Protein backbone atom coordinates (compact mmCIF):
# COMPACT_ATOMS: atom_id res chain seq x y z
CA UNK A 1 0.00 0.00 0.00
CA UNK A 2 1.32 3.46 -0.94
CA UNK A 3 2.38 5.55 2.06
CA UNK A 4 -0.17 8.25 2.78
CA UNK A 5 0.69 11.71 4.09
CA UNK A 6 -1.96 13.86 5.74
CA UNK A 7 -1.78 17.55 6.65
CA UNK A 8 -3.80 18.37 9.79
CA UNK A 9 -4.76 21.90 10.81
CA UNK A 10 -5.98 22.70 14.33
CA UNK A 11 -7.35 26.07 15.41
CA UNK A 12 -10.50 25.65 17.51
CA UNK A 13 -9.38 28.10 20.21
CA UNK A 14 -5.97 29.31 21.45
CA UNK A 15 -3.64 27.07 19.50
CA UNK A 16 -3.16 27.34 15.75
CA UNK A 17 -1.07 24.45 14.53
CA UNK A 18 -0.41 22.35 11.47
CA UNK A 19 1.36 19.02 11.06
CA UNK A 20 2.08 16.42 8.41
CA UNK A 21 2.15 12.77 9.43
CA UNK A 22 2.17 9.34 7.85
CA UNK A 23 1.22 5.96 9.38
CA UNK A 24 4.19 5.90 11.73
CA UNK A 25 5.82 9.32 11.99
CA UNK A 26 5.37 13.04 12.39
CA UNK A 27 7.10 14.56 9.36
CA UNK A 28 6.60 18.29 9.95
CA UNK A 29 4.86 20.56 12.44
CA UNK A 30 4.48 24.24 13.29
CA UNK A 31 2.34 26.15 15.77
CA UNK A 32 1.45 29.64 16.90
CA UNK A 33 -0.35 30.44 20.18
CA UNK A 34 -2.83 33.17 20.94
CA UNK A 35 -2.45 34.30 24.56
CA UNK A 36 -4.73 37.12 25.75
CA UNK A 37 -2.83 39.90 27.56
CA UNK A 38 -5.64 40.09 30.11
CA UNK A 39 -8.94 38.29 30.67
CA UNK A 40 -9.96 35.05 29.02
CA UNK A 41 -9.93 33.87 25.41
CA UNK A 42 -11.79 36.18 23.05
CA UNK A 43 -13.15 34.28 20.01
CA UNK A 44 -12.78 37.14 17.54
CA UNK A 45 -9.27 38.07 18.72
CA UNK A 46 -8.24 34.42 18.53
CA UNK A 47 -9.63 34.20 14.98
CA UNK A 48 -7.72 37.34 13.99
CA UNK A 49 -4.57 35.80 15.37
CA UNK A 50 -5.21 32.62 13.34
CA UNK A 51 -6.00 34.58 10.15
CA UNK A 52 -2.77 36.54 10.34
CA UNK A 53 -0.59 33.50 11.11
CA UNK A 54 -2.10 30.65 9.11
CA UNK A 55 -0.51 31.50 5.73
CA UNK A 56 3.07 31.42 7.04
CA UNK A 57 2.37 28.43 9.25
CA UNK A 58 1.10 26.27 6.41
CA UNK A 59 3.87 27.45 4.08
CA UNK A 60 6.40 26.33 6.73
CA UNK A 61 5.00 22.82 7.18
CA UNK A 62 4.57 22.30 3.45
CA UNK A 63 8.19 23.39 2.86
CA UNK A 64 9.41 21.05 5.61
CA UNK A 65 7.31 18.25 4.16
CA UNK A 66 8.76 18.86 0.71
CA UNK A 67 12.29 18.44 2.07
CA UNK A 68 11.19 14.95 3.16
CA UNK A 69 9.65 14.13 -0.20
CA UNK A 70 6.05 14.39 1.00
CA UNK A 71 3.28 14.07 -1.57
CA UNK A 72 0.12 14.99 0.37
CA UNK A 73 -2.84 12.59 0.20
CA UNK A 74 -5.39 14.73 2.07
CA UNK A 75 -5.94 17.82 4.20
CA UNK A 76 -7.78 17.48 7.51
CA UNK A 77 -9.08 20.34 9.68
CA UNK A 78 -10.81 20.65 13.05
CA UNK A 79 -14.47 21.08 12.11
CA UNK A 80 -15.64 21.56 15.71
CA UNK A 81 -16.32 21.95 18.56
CA UNK A 82 -14.75 25.35 19.12
CA UNK A 83 -15.16 29.08 18.63
CA UNK A 84 -17.11 29.79 15.40
CA UNK A 85 -14.80 32.55 14.10
CA UNK A 86 -11.70 30.39 14.72
CA UNK A 87 -13.25 27.31 13.10
CA UNK A 88 -14.26 29.28 10.01
CA UNK A 89 -10.77 30.72 9.55
CA UNK A 90 -9.17 27.27 9.64
CA UNK A 91 -11.88 25.66 7.46
CA UNK A 92 -11.42 28.32 4.79
CA UNK A 93 -7.70 27.60 4.59
CA UNK A 94 -8.31 23.83 4.48
CA UNK A 95 -10.87 24.11 1.66
CA UNK A 96 -8.54 26.33 -0.36
CA UNK A 97 -5.70 23.82 0.03
CA UNK A 98 -7.91 20.87 -0.87
CA UNK A 99 -9.04 22.63 -4.04
CA UNK A 100 -5.61 23.95 -5.01
CA UNK A 101 -3.85 20.61 -4.50
CA UNK A 102 -6.74 18.46 -5.75
CA UNK A 103 -6.74 16.26 -2.61
CA UNK A 104 -9.61 15.13 -0.34
CA UNK A 105 -10.85 17.31 2.50
CA UNK A 106 -11.51 15.72 5.90
CA UNK A 107 -13.51 17.29 8.76
CA UNK A 108 -12.25 16.10 12.13
CA UNK A 109 -14.04 16.24 15.48
CA UNK A 110 -11.60 17.95 17.87
CA UNK A 111 -12.57 15.78 20.88
CA UNK A 112 -12.07 12.56 18.95
CA UNK A 113 -8.72 13.88 17.72
CA UNK A 114 -7.60 14.26 21.37
CA UNK A 115 -8.51 10.58 21.85
CA UNK A 116 -7.00 9.22 18.65
CA UNK A 117 -3.63 10.91 19.10
CA UNK A 118 -3.47 9.46 22.63
CA UNK A 119 -4.34 5.96 21.41
CA UNK A 120 -1.64 6.29 18.75
CA UNK A 121 1.13 7.63 20.98
CA UNK A 122 0.41 5.30 23.93
CA UNK A 123 -0.61 2.29 21.88
CA UNK A 124 -3.84 1.98 23.88
CA UNK A 125 -6.34 -0.45 22.35
CA UNK A 126 -9.82 0.05 23.75
CA UNK A 127 -9.65 2.42 26.70
CA UNK A 128 -12.10 4.34 28.81
CA UNK A 129 -11.12 7.93 28.07
CA UNK A 130 -11.11 10.85 30.48
CA UNK A 131 -11.09 13.90 28.21
CA UNK A 132 -10.51 17.08 30.18
CA UNK A 133 -9.78 20.41 28.54
CA UNK A 134 -10.84 24.05 28.64
CA UNK A 135 -14.22 23.66 27.00
CA UNK A 136 -14.89 19.95 27.55
CA UNK A 137 -14.97 17.34 30.29
CA UNK A 138 -16.21 13.89 29.34
CA UNK A 139 -15.77 10.21 30.11
CA UNK A 140 -16.07 8.20 26.89
CA UNK A 141 -15.47 4.80 25.43
CA UNK A 142 -15.90 3.13 22.04
CA UNK A 143 -18.90 0.88 21.47
CA UNK A 144 -20.78 -0.14 18.32
CA UNK A 145 -19.44 2.41 15.85
CA UNK A 146 -19.28 5.44 18.13
CA UNK A 147 -17.39 6.95 21.01
CA UNK A 148 -20.18 6.94 23.61
CA UNK A 149 -20.26 9.57 26.34
CA UNK A 150 -20.77 7.89 29.71
CA UNK A 151 -20.52 11.03 31.79
CA UNK A 152 -19.87 14.71 31.21
CA UNK A 153 -19.96 18.14 32.76
CA UNK A 154 -23.40 19.62 33.29
CA UNK A 155 -22.03 23.16 33.01
CA UNK A 156 -18.45 24.31 32.30
CA UNK A 157 -15.35 22.29 31.43
CA UNK A 158 -12.83 21.68 34.21
CA UNK A 159 -10.15 23.74 32.37
CA UNK A 160 -12.58 26.63 32.08
CA UNK A 161 -13.36 26.34 35.80
CA UNK A 162 -9.65 26.41 36.68
CA UNK A 163 -9.03 29.35 34.33
CA UNK A 164 -11.99 31.33 35.74
CA UNK A 165 -10.81 30.79 39.30
CA UNK A 166 -7.25 31.59 38.23
CA UNK A 167 -8.31 34.85 36.66
CA UNK A 168 -10.15 35.83 39.86
CA UNK A 169 -7.01 35.01 41.84
CA UNK A 170 -4.98 37.29 39.53
CA UNK A 171 -3.27 34.74 37.26
CA UNK A 172 -2.87 35.37 33.54
CA UNK A 173 -4.72 32.94 31.21
CA UNK A 174 -4.46 29.95 31.31
CA UNK A 175 -4.72 29.52 35.06
CA UNK A 176 -4.52 25.70 35.15
CA UNK A 177 -0.71 25.37 35.23
CA UNK A 178 -0.32 28.16 37.82
CA UNK A 179 -2.94 26.59 40.09
CA UNK A 180 -0.99 23.33 39.90
CA UNK A 181 2.18 25.14 41.00
CA UNK A 182 0.47 26.97 43.88
CA UNK A 183 -1.20 23.76 45.09
CA UNK A 184 2.20 22.19 45.74
CA UNK A 185 2.77 24.59 48.68
CA UNK A 186 -0.59 24.05 50.37
CA UNK A 187 -0.82 23.24 54.08
CA UNK A 188 -4.37 21.96 54.38
CA UNK A 189 -7.50 20.83 52.56
CA UNK A 190 -10.60 23.06 52.70
CA UNK A 191 -13.93 21.31 51.98
CA UNK A 192 -15.50 22.52 48.69
CA UNK A 193 -18.69 21.35 46.89
CA UNK A 194 -18.23 17.88 45.43
CA UNK A 195 -20.90 17.47 42.74
CA UNK A 196 -21.38 14.14 40.96
CA UNK A 197 -24.91 13.39 39.73
CA UNK A 198 -25.23 9.91 38.31
CA UNK A 199 -22.34 9.78 35.85
CA UNK A 200 -22.19 13.56 35.33
CA UNK A 201 -20.30 16.25 37.18
CA UNK A 202 -20.52 20.00 37.60
CA UNK A 203 -17.86 22.62 38.26
CA UNK A 204 -19.50 26.02 38.43
CA UNK A 205 -20.61 25.77 42.08
CA UNK A 206 -17.14 24.58 43.01
CA UNK A 207 -15.60 27.55 41.19
CA UNK A 208 -17.82 30.06 43.01
CA UNK A 209 -17.12 28.40 46.39
CA UNK A 210 -13.37 28.43 45.70
CA UNK A 211 -13.48 32.17 44.93
CA UNK A 212 -15.38 32.78 48.19
CA UNK A 213 -12.94 30.63 50.15
CA UNK A 214 -10.14 33.05 49.24
CA UNK A 215 -11.63 35.48 51.77
CA UNK A 216 -10.59 33.24 54.67
CA UNK A 217 -7.99 30.77 53.35
CA UNK A 218 -4.60 31.00 51.66
CA UNK A 219 -4.38 30.91 47.85
CA UNK A 220 -2.19 27.79 48.07
CA UNK A 221 -4.75 25.94 50.20
CA UNK A 222 -7.64 26.90 47.91
CA UNK A 223 -5.72 25.88 44.76
CA UNK A 224 -4.94 22.53 46.36
CA UNK A 225 -8.52 22.01 47.55
CA UNK A 226 -9.96 22.97 44.16
CA UNK A 227 -7.76 20.39 42.44
CA UNK A 228 -8.37 17.63 44.97
CA UNK A 229 -12.15 18.09 44.84
CA UNK A 230 -12.51 18.44 41.07
CA UNK A 231 -10.07 15.65 40.24
CA UNK A 232 -11.69 13.26 42.74
CA UNK A 233 -15.02 13.83 40.93
CA UNK A 234 -13.41 13.04 37.58
CA UNK A 235 -11.64 9.95 38.89
CA UNK A 236 -14.84 8.66 40.55
CA UNK A 237 -16.80 8.76 37.28
CA UNK A 238 -13.90 7.29 35.29
CA UNK A 239 -13.64 4.42 37.78
CA UNK A 240 -17.35 3.75 37.60
CA UNK A 241 -17.29 3.71 33.78
CA UNK A 242 -14.37 1.28 33.88
CA UNK A 243 -16.25 -1.04 36.23
CA UNK A 244 -19.57 -0.84 34.33
CA UNK A 245 -18.14 -1.37 30.86
CA UNK A 246 -15.63 -3.96 32.00
CA UNK A 247 -12.61 -2.52 30.19
CA UNK A 248 -9.07 -2.55 31.53
CA UNK A 249 -7.40 0.56 30.08
CA UNK A 250 -7.75 4.26 30.90
CA UNK A 251 -6.49 6.99 28.59
CA UNK A 252 -6.15 10.60 29.72
CA UNK A 253 -6.66 13.27 27.03
CA UNK A 254 -7.00 17.06 26.77
CA UNK A 255 -5.02 20.02 28.10
CA UNK A 256 -5.89 19.50 31.80
CA UNK A 257 -4.34 16.04 31.40
CA UNK A 258 -0.97 17.79 31.65
CA UNK A 259 -1.62 18.07 35.41
CA UNK A 260 0.68 15.77 37.43
CA UNK A 261 -1.70 15.46 40.38
CA UNK A 262 -4.57 14.34 38.15
CA UNK A 263 -2.27 11.75 36.54
CA UNK A 264 -1.19 10.53 39.96
CA UNK A 265 -4.81 10.10 41.15
CA UNK A 266 -5.82 8.23 37.99
CA UNK A 267 -2.74 6.05 38.16
CA UNK A 268 -3.57 5.05 41.74
CA UNK A 269 -7.16 4.21 40.84
CA UNK A 270 -5.99 2.11 37.87
CA UNK A 271 -3.42 0.25 39.99
CA UNK A 272 -6.16 -0.57 42.52
CA UNK A 273 -8.33 -2.02 39.77
CA UNK A 274 -5.55 -3.76 37.84
CA UNK A 275 -6.14 -1.51 34.81
CA UNK A 276 -3.48 0.04 32.57
CA UNK A 277 -3.18 3.82 32.69
CA UNK A 278 -2.01 5.77 29.64
CA UNK A 279 -1.10 9.46 29.54
CA UNK A 280 0.73 10.83 26.50
CA UNK A 281 3.33 13.55 27.02
CA UNK A 282 2.08 17.13 27.43
CA UNK A 283 2.56 18.17 23.83
CA UNK A 284 -0.05 15.61 22.74
CA UNK A 285 -2.48 16.48 25.57
CA UNK A 286 -2.83 20.13 24.62
CA UNK A 287 -4.32 21.13 21.28
CA UNK A 288 -1.98 20.26 18.40
CA UNK A 289 -2.01 19.71 14.64
CA UNK A 290 -0.72 16.14 14.93
CA UNK A 291 -4.01 14.99 16.49
CA UNK A 292 -5.99 16.35 13.56
CA UNK A 293 -3.60 14.80 11.03
CA UNK A 294 -3.70 11.42 12.81
CA UNK A 295 -7.51 11.31 12.92
CA UNK A 296 -7.58 12.58 9.33
CA UNK A 297 -5.40 9.66 8.25
CA UNK A 298 -7.67 7.13 9.98
CA UNK A 299 -10.69 8.76 8.33
CA UNK A 300 -9.00 8.87 4.92
CA UNK A 301 -8.25 5.16 5.10
CA UNK A 302 -11.91 4.48 5.86
CA UNK A 303 -13.14 6.84 3.13
CA UNK A 304 -14.67 9.37 5.53
CA UNK A 305 -13.91 12.41 3.38
CA UNK A 306 -15.98 15.56 2.94
CA UNK A 307 -17.28 17.48 -0.06
CA UNK A 308 -16.78 21.24 0.06
CA UNK A 309 -20.53 21.80 0.29
CA UNK A 310 -20.73 19.62 3.42
CA UNK A 311 -17.73 21.22 5.07
CA UNK A 312 -19.49 23.87 7.17
CA UNK A 313 -18.03 24.15 10.66
CA UNK A 314 -19.93 22.72 13.65
CA UNK A 315 -19.22 24.87 16.76
CA UNK A 316 -21.01 22.44 19.11
CA UNK A 317 -19.93 19.19 17.40
CA UNK A 318 -20.29 16.32 19.87
CA UNK A 319 -18.00 13.29 19.72
CA UNK A 320 -20.99 10.92 19.78
CA UNK A 321 -22.27 12.54 16.55
CA UNK A 322 -19.35 10.99 14.68
CA UNK A 323 -19.57 7.62 12.94
CA UNK A 324 -16.30 5.95 13.82
CA UNK A 325 -15.56 4.23 10.52
CA UNK A 326 -11.95 3.29 11.33
CA UNK A 327 -12.34 0.91 14.29
P1 LIG B 1 -11.00 21.86 23.89
O1 LIG B 1 -11.54 22.46 22.64
O2 LIG B 1 -10.65 20.43 23.75
O3 LIG B 1 -11.82 22.18 25.08
P2 LIG B 1 -8.92 23.71 24.65
O4 LIG B 1 -9.04 24.80 23.68
O5 LIG B 1 -9.44 23.93 26.00
O6 LIG B 1 -9.51 22.41 24.01
P3 LIG B 1 -6.56 22.26 25.49
O7 LIG B 1 -5.15 22.53 25.09
O8 LIG B 1 -7.09 20.91 25.23
O9 LIG B 1 -7.38 23.39 24.75
O10 LIG B 1 -6.75 22.60 27.04
C1 LIG B 1 -6.44 23.87 27.59
C2 LIG B 1 -6.81 23.85 29.07
O11 LIG B 1 -5.87 23.02 29.77
C3 LIG B 1 -6.80 25.20 29.75
O12 LIG B 1 -8.00 25.35 30.47
C4 LIG B 1 -5.61 25.11 30.73
O13 LIG B 1 -5.77 25.84 31.93
C5 LIG B 1 -5.58 23.63 31.02
N1 LIG B 1 -4.27 23.17 31.49
C6 LIG B 1 -3.09 23.18 30.83
N2 LIG B 1 -2.09 22.72 31.62
C7 LIG B 1 -2.66 22.42 32.83
C8 LIG B 1 -2.18 21.90 34.07
N3 LIG B 1 -0.90 21.63 34.25
N4 LIG B 1 -3.07 21.72 35.07
C9 LIG B 1 -4.37 22.00 34.91
N5 LIG B 1 -4.89 22.50 33.77
C10 LIG B 1 -4.05 22.71 32.75
FE1 LIG C 1 -8.63 20.69 22.94
Explain what the structure shows.
α1 (43-67) runs parallel beside α2 (84-101), α3 crosses α10 (289-301) and α4 packs parallel to α6. The mean pLDDT is 97. The chain has helices spanning 43-67, 84-101, 110-122, 158-168, 176-183, 204-213, 219-245, 260-273, 282-285, 289-301; strands at residues 6-10, 15-21, 26-33, 74-80, 105-109, 128-132, 137-143, 146-152, 196-197, 200-201, 249-253, 276-278. The strands form three sheets. Strands 3-2-1-4-5 form a five-stranded mixed sheet, with helices on both faces. The chain has a five-stranded mixed sheet with strand order 8-7-6-11-12, sandwiched between helices. Strands 9-10 form a two-stranded antiparallel sheet. It is built from ten helices and twelve strands. It has two domains: 6-114 and 285-321, ATPase, nucleotide binding domain (Nucleotidyltransferase, domain 5), CATH 3.30.420.40; 126-282, ATPase, nucleotide binding domain (Nucleotidyltransferase, domain 5), CATH 3.30.420.40. 44% of the residues lie in helices and 19% in strands. It is globular and about 60 Å long. The chain is an alpha/beta fold and 327 residues long. A hairpin with a 4-residue loop joins β2 (15-21) and β3. The relative contact order is 0.19. The chain binds adenosine-5'-triphosphate (ATP) and fe (ii) ion. The site of fe (ii) ion has 6 residues, from α3. The site of adenosine-5'-triphosphate has 26 residues, from α3, α4 and α5.
